[in-house]
Design goal:
The protein is an alpha+beta fold. 39% of the residues lie in helices and 14% in strands. It has one domain: 3-Layer(aba) Sandwich (L-fuculose-1-phosphate Aldolase). The two termini are 31 Å apart. It catalyses: L-ribulose 5-phosphate = D-xylulose 5-phosphate.
């Protein structure tokens, strides 16, 4: 079932350790099929090297397992809360990436300091603490993320959303890179924060001008 989405979600999960966004079994990626609303998600607590397109788990929006022998990610309900609240979201990523999470443990949002914030939606807002694995954290993600593609949750890590699993994965990589640059800059001074006007300009640049146009 949903072979193409299984493969995309598997590949995106593998991009997390490849980009040093997770350690051991932490983190997860899911994708939602626009036709059926079924969600493909990583199984819980399985080493990345043991993942395959076939052992991704398919759940419905109520969390029932539709296909798969393994238990889905502990964060499944969190992803589902977001998918139920946001019909425009078709992919979601969770990481504990180091630099971004260091802002989360300080209780600080990540400031928009580079033009790549145009891929993220500006700075990365901070959500309140909520234990992993339930609806509460999903509601906090929905409430805080607003028009952004990313949020950091206090003392926990990063959640990103997108038009696809691949898009949300790209955002997760860019969040970590911007957090690292902000962190390094803050060691040596006070970084210049982009203005709302500059954020609009770079966001529009990525949407309208960046990449191949056919
Ligand atoms: O945040 C947590 C636990 O702190 C989880 O997201 C784990 O990082 C990954 O859980 P699984 O997806 O393997 O269940």
């Amino acid at each position: 079932m949903l072979q193409a989405l299984r493969e995309e979600v598997y590949k995106c999960n593998m991009l997390l350790p490849e980009n040093d966004l997770v350690k051991m079994t932490s983190g997860n990626v899911s994708g939602r099929d626009p036709q059926t609303n079924l969600v493909v998600i990583k199984p819980s607590g399985v080493a990345y090297e043991k993942l395959s397109p076939e052992n991704m788990v398919i759940v419905d929006l109520d969390g029932n397992v539709v296909e798969g022998d393994l238990t889905p990610s502990i964060d499944t309900e969190t992803h589902l809360v977001v998918y139920r609240a946001r019909p425009d979201v078709f992919g979601m990523v969770h990481t504990h990436s180091t630099y971004a999470t260091s802002f989360a443990v300080l209780g600080q949002p990540i400031p928009p300091v580079t033009t790549t914030c145009g891929l993220i939606g500006g700075g990365v807002p901070l959500g309140r603490f909520a234990c992993f694995g339930g609806e509460t954290i999903g509601h906090e993600v929905v409430n805080v993320i607003g028009d952004s593609y990313a949020v950091i949750m206090q003392s926990h890590g990063v959640f990103t959303i997108g038009h696809s699993a691949s898009h949300a994965t790209r955002v997760a990589v860019e969040v970590e890179e911007m957090a690292k640059i902000a962190h390094l800059a803050m060691l040596r001074g006070k970084p210049i924060i982009l203005t709302p006007e500059q954020i609009r300009e770079v966001s529009s640049g990525y949407v309208n001008d960046y990449g191949q146009k056919k």
